[in-house]
Amino acid sequence: HPPPMRRALAACFVSSACLHPAASSLQVSFISAAFDIEATSVTFLFSGPTLRGGQPTDATGDNVPDWIDKQNQLSIGVEGDCNTFLNGYTAHKLGAGTQCVWTTDSALKAVLGSTSQLNVGDEVCLRGSAIY
Question: Do 30 and 14 contact (CB within 8 A), yes or no?
């Protein structure tokens, strides 16, 4: 049997103008977002390993990160609030109670809430400066 077809969503890319200069070299690209075969979750794929919500912090003003703020960082397999990673419109479309979980360092899965209004072809967007 051929592999199941994934139903794609339109990707909304975060402009590099939204990024802190210290973190711009750490920014990964948002590649795609697609429903699973049952349309109960959406997986967001990135160009490489991310900090899973961790934020590079420049304490000295030299545009070089001095440490990673791990306040919003999730471990792989641990569910968290999708509002941390997705913009308000996208989080609303995913539905009430939607949780996000990093399945790898470069894949974020959103399990859709019971009130999801997300459809194939809808635009989904990341929260600016949320994923490095």
Answer: yes
Task: State residue 16 phi and psi, 5-degree precision.
Answer: -65, -15
* Secondary structure in 3-state letters for 67-116: EEECCCCCCCCCEEEHHHCECHHHHHHHCCCCEEEEEECCEEEEECCCCC
Amino acid at 119: N
Question: pLDDT (tens digit, 9 = 90+) per residue, 14-61?
Answer: 333 333 333 444 567 888 888 888 888 999 998 888 888 777 777 888
List C-alpha distances in Å: 104 to 92, 117, 121.
24, 26, 24
Q: Are strands 79-81 and 8-12 parallel, antiparallel or unpaired?
A: unpaired
Q: Pairing relation of β-strands 107-111 and 67-69?
A: unpaired
As given in the structure block, the two tokens for residue 99 are: 């949780």
Distances (CA, A) of 99 to 2, 23, 27, 37: 30, 26, 23, 18
Contact 11, 33 (CB under 8 A): yes
